[in-house]
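REQUEST ID: PR-0412
SUBMITTED BY: lab tech R.K.
PRIORITY: routine
TASK: structure prediction, single protein chain
INPUT:
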Amino acid sequence: MKPELKTLWQGPVPRALVEGMIPERLRVLVLAPHPDDFDAIGVTLHFLAENGNPIHAAVVQTGSGVEDSYLPGATQAQKAALREKEQRASLRFFGLPEEKLTFLDLERDATDQLKDSAANFGAISAFIIDCQPDIIFLPHGNDTNNAHRVMCSLARQAALRHGRPVALFMNRDAKTVGMRTDLYLPFGDEMAEWKAQLLRFHDSQQQRNLAVRGHGFDERVLMLNRQIAAELKLEARYAEAFELEFYNLG
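STATUS: complete
OUTPUT:
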């Protein structure tokens, strides 16, 4: 067992993610039920990439969130292809190697969202066993988005089956109902602008948010990051926040 996971498990919370807290040899897997879920925690993942941690992103194929007005006459498969193209572009900007990005063709429901099924549990479990991650990033289960809830549930079950020590870093999203903040990463204006650029590669979501909410996808995410920093009374203007769960530490 890697003792660094026990170190993460111990100590007062909330605490800031700082240099040296996560050794570079720990492998990171990001489980994303939608294209753009990776980008929503992009600053933390950038921090870990700079730290030298190997990162693999597994993104569920889906065309959900693409309005008919954005891509008139498109089939659901064409919408999914668009979202995949957006995700690949954003992760090229991030600097993630192509071979570290996997799109998962999993069972989806009538709304093209990740389905809670035995087949999906088996596929996610197999993927985790193949990747052998030490840390898994994913959306929090206490969330109004059903795909977020499903991914969290399947990952928790898979972590139990996996048998190896693993930490789940469940992130706070704009649709998270409530969670405990164990770990946060503060950041300033320069990284906020970088993150906004990353998010704008998802133009289908940028335009949908502008039409529906009056502000872009980039601003929606950064508003949450400002709210987190304010709630934690940080000097930094922005922060990403996570609740941690640990499995099989012994």
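NOTES: The longest helix spans residues 76-94.
REVIEWED BY: pending
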